[in-house]
């Protein structure tokens, strides 16, 4: 299968207000993601897991180029052969929502409170002028024809959009979509908004869907519902999925490959079964041990702040099996038998 | 199953909110009635708290009139009765839609007001509308890109404008455009009652009031857009593929302009009072000059009538804003089905 998205040596750093910190010697900057590399093949689901604050969401926003202005992004993000980081904002806007889509972690806030669900679901069609090109062509042809006919065609197009939305809403489990299309996000529950958001993001059938902590804040029933919806979506549309989550069970059931992140870098990549059954990196092991079903054993200490990372292996202060060189040298991500680990203690 | 629950929940909600809206409506009506009563009382009290005697004023300071004649006049106008009797008479007249009879203009107050208020409403209405459109659009753009030099300059300009009293601005405009350059007439609504003449005469006063109104809208809108554009839905709009300014127009502006509704209702009253001064400066024959003359002449019925009408206009504007919110913001209403 072809590679759809390739991220190479991605570095994301945030610069504080430089003028305010003039008296400090160091330029206040935090590196949220350092030298991150991974790839997603077509139709593949890659999960990015890790604790809160390890840089997962930053990766998602970096791919979509949605980071705020005070961020600096370096490296290469190749999507279908084009480097996204070299594109200008206008070219990027054409890709967003059509070829790459994102589902945010807070669906009730991601939907605009003052527009109806139907309006917001029809928007992707209006933005990515599928009808615009056609309309331009038609206008040339129809210049001689009557104006009334053109109006009829416009209505026809609106109707096709409407039927597409209705169909998509039915797919995510709304039996009477017409009623819900007149609703507003504040009238609906979080779970309903989540489904509206998924529908809005996938309605144009993007090549890559990024789900940024979609299960966060949902109760267990909703999470399993969401899981089914994402599964259905994948089967139906065959798009690739970058799943960002800290819910390990959720990830295990959905992902084709799992990448574990710690303090801004990937420390292990493997298939879900091999990762969950025989984790190599001590952090991954610790993470699995901290699950309730595995005895609720927490990893001692807490992850380091991104502004002052420890020398050597970033996990060494919390590592139970650290050696001397772990404290001095920074380990590389080594590939072996289709899985990669960033640890000296694994060959 | 899930759908059933959702449906039930909504039915319950609508039932609950139905009684809720009823209670809310009763509460609001009561509040408006109470403020109306307060307005009527103040209307009666304030002119009478002014120093001076209306009868003496009517006759003129220099003319000698016997005490008996003055008493007779006072009795004719009902001013010799105790205050509470005057008040009950005033309320009684109000209930019969009778606003009284002007001492100076020698005609019923209602008629005088009808002649004057149309012009002031035209003046204030056009100014509020222009100010709202200008201030909202410029403010939205300035909030969208607050760091550009042009927007910083505009912002400074509007802050200066909002701090300048409108009558002062009116004087400056009158001096420069009408006196120095001779582009506009000094006074009045028209020479001949044609639309062209009216526009020519109204241009300066409307510009002054519109600019003043725009400066207030501008500052609110700018802050509102800066706040709203950081919300997640704005980022999601970008993630949907919207480019730059279309995010502002398609998503942010509607959310950001909600506070403007309140401001417009407030502004309506504020501009009314500001318009009075501006009218006097431009010698426009509207409510402003009427009130001014009535204060100088202690013409109680005219003062009471004009204050009442202005207060009612502001009250109505506030009620309209209340209703508009329910239309513009789905968060304050519920599904109707």
Q: Return Rg of chain A in Å.
A: 23 Å
**What percent of the residues of chain A sit in helical stretches (DSSP H or I)?**
25-40%
CATH names the topology of the largest domain in chain B as MetI-like fold
What is the makeup of the main sheet of chain A?
A: 8 strands, mixed
Task: Find the count of extended strands of chain A (DSSP E, 2+ residues).
Answer: 12
Report mean pLDDT of chain B, rounded to a whole number: 82
> CATH superfamily assignment of one domain in chain A?
P-loop containing nucleotide triphosphate hydrolases
Arithmetic mean of pLDDT of chain A: 84
- Main beta-sheet strand count, sense and barrel state of chain B: none
Find the CATH topology of one domain in chain A: Rossmann fold
Distance between the termini of chain B: 20 Å
| Low-confidence runs of at least 5 consecutive residues of chain B | 1-11
Oligomer: heterodimer
Helical residue percent band of chain B: over 70%
Q: What's the number of helices of chain B?
A: 13
Q: Supply the number of helical segments of chain A.
A: 12
Q: Supply the CATH class of the largest domain in chain B.
A: Mainly Alpha
CATH uppermost class of one domain in chain A: Alpha Beta
- Strand portion of chain A, in percent? 15-25%
Task: Report on the architecture of this protein.
The complex is a heterodimer of chains A (347) and B (337). Chain A has 347 residues and is α/β, with parallel strands linked by helices. Chain A has a domain at 3-16 and 29-99 and 206-341: P-loop containing nucleotide triphosphate hydrolases (Rossmann fold, 3-Layer(aba) Sandwich), CATH 3.40.50.300. Helix content of chain A is 36%, strand content 22%. In chain A, strands 6-7-8-3-9-10-12-11 form an eight-stranded mixed beta sheet, sandwiched between helices. A four-stranded antiparallel beta sheet of chain A has the order 2-1-4-5, with helices on one face. The longest helix of chain A has 25 residues, at 147-171. Chain A starts with a strand and ends in a 6-residue tail after the last strand. With 337 residues, chain B is mostly helical. The longest helix of chain B has 48 residues, at 2-49. In chain B, helix 11 packs antiparallel against helix 13. Chain B has helices at residues 2-49, 54-59, 67-77, 83-95, 109-144, 149-163, 166-180, 195-228, 232-239, 245-256, 258-281, 287-296, 300-328. Chain B folds into two domains: 2-95; 109-329, MetI-like (MetI-like fold). The A-B interface holds A 64, 66, 89-90, 93-98, 101-102, 104, 106, 109-116, 123-124, 127-128, 173-176, 179, 182-184, 186-187, 189, 192, 197, 200-201 and B 2-3, 6, 10, 231-233, 235-244, 250-251, 254-255, 258, 328-331, 334-335, 337.
């Amino acid at each position: 299968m072809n590679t759809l998205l390739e991220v190479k040596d991605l570095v994301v750093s945030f610069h504080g207000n430089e003028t305010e910190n003039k008296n400090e010697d160091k330029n206040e900057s935090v590196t949220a993601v350092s030298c991150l590399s991974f790839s997603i093949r077509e139709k593949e689901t890659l999960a990015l897991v890790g604790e809160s604050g390890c840089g997962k969401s930053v990766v998602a926003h970096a791919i979509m180029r949605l980071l705020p202005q005070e961020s600096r992004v370096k490296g290469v993000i190749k999507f279908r052969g084009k480097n996204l980081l070299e594109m200008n904002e206008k070219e990027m806007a054409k890709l967003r929502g059509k070829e790459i889509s994102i589902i945010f972690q807070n669906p009730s806030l991601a939907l605009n409170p003052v527009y109806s669900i139907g309006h917001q679901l029809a928007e992707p069609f209006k933005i990515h002028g599928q009808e615009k090109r056609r309309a331009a062509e038609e206008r040339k042809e129809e210049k001689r024809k009557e104006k009334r006919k053109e109006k009829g065609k416009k209505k026809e197009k609106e109707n096709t959009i409407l039927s597409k939305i209705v169909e998509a809403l039915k797919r995510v489990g709304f039996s009477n979509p017409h009623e819900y299309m007149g609703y507003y996000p504040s009238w609906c529950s979080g779970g309903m908004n989540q489904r509206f958001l998924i529908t809005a993001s996938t309605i144009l059938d993007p090549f890559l869907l990024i789900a940024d902590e979609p299960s966060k804040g949902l109760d267990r029933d909703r999470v399993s519902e969401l899981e089914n919806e994402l599964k259905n979506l994948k089967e139906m549309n065959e798009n690739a999925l970058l799943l960002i989550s800290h819910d390990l069970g959720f990830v295990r059931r959905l992902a084709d490959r799992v990448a574990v992140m710690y303090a801004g870098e990937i420390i292990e990549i493997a298939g879900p079964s091999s990762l969950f059954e025989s984790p190599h990196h001590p952090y991954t092991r610790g993470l699995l041990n901290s699950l309730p079903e595995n005895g609720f054993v927490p990893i001692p200490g807490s992850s380091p702040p991104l502004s002052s990372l420890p020398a050597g292996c970033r996990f060494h202060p919390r590592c139970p099996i650290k050696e001397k060189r772990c404290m001095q040298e920074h380990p590389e991500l080594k590939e072996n038998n289709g899985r990669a680990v960033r640890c000296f203690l694994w060959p | 199953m899930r759908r059933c629950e959702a449906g039930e929940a909504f039915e319950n909600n609508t039932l609950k909110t139905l009684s809720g809206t009823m209670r809310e409506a009763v509460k609001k009506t009561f509040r408006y009635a109470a403020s109306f009563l307060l307005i009527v009382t103040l209307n009666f009290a304030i002119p009478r708290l002014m120093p001076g005697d209306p009868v003496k004023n009517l006759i003129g300071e220099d003319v000698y009139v016997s005490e008996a004649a003055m008493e007779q006049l006072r009795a004719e106008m009902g001013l010799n009765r105790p205050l509470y009797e005057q008040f009950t008479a005033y309320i009684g007249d109000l209930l019969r839609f009778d606003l009284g009879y002007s001492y100076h203009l020698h005609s019923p107050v209602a008629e005088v007001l009808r002649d004057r208020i149309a012009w002031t409403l035209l003046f204030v209405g056009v100014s509020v509308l222009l100010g709202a459109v200008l201030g909202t659009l410029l403010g939205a753009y300035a909030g969208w890109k607050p760091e550009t030099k042009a927007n910083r300059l505009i912002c400074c300009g509007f802050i200066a404008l909002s701090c300048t009293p409108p009558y002062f601005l009116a004087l400056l405009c009158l001096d420069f455009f009408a006196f120095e350059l001779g582009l506009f007439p000094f006074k009045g609504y028209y020479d001949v009652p044609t639309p062209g003449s009216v526009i020519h005469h109204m241009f300066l006063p409307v510009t002054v009031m519109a600019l003043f109104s725009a400066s207030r809208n501008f500052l609110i809108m700018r802050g509102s857009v800066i706040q709203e554009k950081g919300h997640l839905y704005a980022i999601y709009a970008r993630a949907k593929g919207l480019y730059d300014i279309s995010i502002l127009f398609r998503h942010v502006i509607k959310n950001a302009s909600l506070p403007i509704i309140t401001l417009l209702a407030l502004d309506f009253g504020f501009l009314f009072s500001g318009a009075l001064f501006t009218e006097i400066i431009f010698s426009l024959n509207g409510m402003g000059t009427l009130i001014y003359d009535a204060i100088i002449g202690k013409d109680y019925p005219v003062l009471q009538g004009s204050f009442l009408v202005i207060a009612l206009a502001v009250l109505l504007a506030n009620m309209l804003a209340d209703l508009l919110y329910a239309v513009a913001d789905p968060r304050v209403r519920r599904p109707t089905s």
